[in-house]
Structure formats: C-alpha cells, structure tokens
C-alpha cells in the first residue's frame, strides 16, 4: 500500500459538520470520506478528459 501524506485542511465548520454526518451514514471516518470524494472527483475528471481527447 502506498504511503499516505498528512496535511492540514482548513474547512468551513458547516461543511465539516455535513461531511461528518455523511461519513457516519456511509460507515467511514471523516478523513476516509474526504479521500473517497476526492478520488471520485479525480476519476470523473480523468473520464471527461478521455472523452474530449485532452491530455
């Protein structure tokens, strides 16, 4: 498994509260939920780039 890098994230308190609730609903940690959402966004971006032919 790849090594993970820690970093500080500044986030709006209301957004954090929503993320915490969402993570709990999906049985993930808040960190896991953020990582999952970022991965989904990156995958979608890669897909859209393939469709348009961008590199």
Automatic annotation (TrEMBL):
Domain CopG-like ribbon-helix-helix as annotated: residue spans: 14-46
Biological processes annotated in GO: regulation of DNA-templated transcription
Pfam families reported in the protein's UniProt record: RHH_5
Protein name as it appears in the record: Arc family DNA binding domain-containing protein
Lineage of producing organism: Bacteria, Pseudomonadati, Bacteroidota, Sphingobacteriia, Sphingobacteriales
């Amino acid at each position: 498994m790849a090594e993970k890098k820690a970093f500080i994230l500044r986030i709006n308190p209301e957004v954090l509260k929503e993320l915490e609730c969402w993570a709990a609903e999906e049985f993930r940690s808040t960190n896991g939920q953020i990582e999952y959402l970022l991965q989904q966004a990156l995958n979608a971006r890669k897909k859209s780039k393939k469709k348009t032919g961008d590199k």
